[in-house]
Amino acid sequence: MNSSNLDKERALRLFTYLKEFSMLETPLVRNVENYDDVLWFSEVPEEKECTTPLQDGDFHDVWIEIEKPIKPPVSSPSEKIVTWLESEDELNNENKEPKLVEQIPNPNYVEDDEDESPEPRYINLNDHPEITNEFQKYMENEWMPWKEEVFRFKKVQSIYTDLFSIYQKHKNLGEQFELIVGVGLLNWKSPNGQIVHCHLLNVPATFGFDADTGVITVVPTAQGINPDLEQDMLELEDRLDSSSLQPVIELIHLLQENFWDKTTQDTILRSYVQSLSAEGVYYEEEIENKHNFANEPIVLYSPALILRKRVEKGFQQACTKIIDNIESDPSSIPQGVTRIFKTMDDLQPNGIEGMDTGVEAEDNIIYFPKEANEEQEKIISRLSSRNGVIVQGPPGTGKSHTIANLTSHLLATGKRVLITSETDRALKVLKAKLPKELQGLCVSLLGADSQSFKDLEHVIHMISNERDDWDPDVTQKEIENILKSSMI
What's the rounded Cα separation, in Å, for the pair 337 and 335? Predict the structure, then answer.
């Protein structure tokens, strides 16, 4: 086996191992109810405070909206009615109707040992039909409508509390968990005996929360609408092959404009289940969470909001794509990968691979916006002649400061820079250390909240303005002035 074929074989083994190891670390979930939190759209009451795609309307930008309900106050009856109540506290208890007592003590009665009081000791309700009539009117016109409104309030409050709980978990758990909306609930006892109760068509989502009004919304992520058909819960032999799946995938792309295009959703789910089995059935009107495990696959529409541990599907797909690229073109293996399993000199006569940007940088000029030491200058020197440089250091040793300087220099010399991190918190810290002129050029690909979406809009706006206002002649003069002043 020659050197080229050996490199190809080793690279294939490496990425196959990484992909399969990632799959082993990700627990296979076949029942949607085993996820951390699931809220079924069918559980959202059809009330004025609640909006979901199960209702008519445009749901392109907001998929769920729940307003914070306000418990209605009870209207008190007149004072003379209050006197006859068994308990005034019952007025605020919607589960127990207030009642009148049969008699009450007579306030005009005066107990006298010598002479009998001309007033009776008690007043009987039967002797005062006007009290009964007024009480009945109060019950019909005020208390009973209030009771119905309280029950309506409780339904909305219950779903609001559930959604608020998921919102807080999603915010506190960070990037390890993801929020998705799923439609197309697959119920199936597969040929190998596996019980499957999971959604087929899923799309990433995120929360919006207005602290002033208390309104909670579920909206698309900052990355837009990116639906995906998931077959992970099925064994390999039970899944659709790539040729059968391709027509379905092409339809899924249509949902990127409007995920709640019901006609397209129905076509996708019906096509999938009927391709999966000759006896496959899709029930497009079924919105409840139902269990019906038969030998033939059944798909219910049944949309749900799901909070689950983030799966490394993107990483696995990337490994698959890399494997395919290596198979088709072994020469595409980067040296950074080859050096993992092969001793080699990474000295590059032209510096970093693929970095010919057409920008001619002056020799020996380093563009650091912050204070720098000799080590940082050495890193730039090594990058100019090597494929890569590793910079290590414990917390608090100025790595973010160093990265900010390196990033600024690379951008100033016409390079594009990709910065990766396990969480977006570290990226936010780094962005704050960059010069303000560069912060507006940084696009976050990891954040999925409303703030990330606003940041993306700001970046696009700033880049557009910079491009429109850019004058090459003026810029060239500024560069020359800076170079002259630096040489003085």
Answer: 5
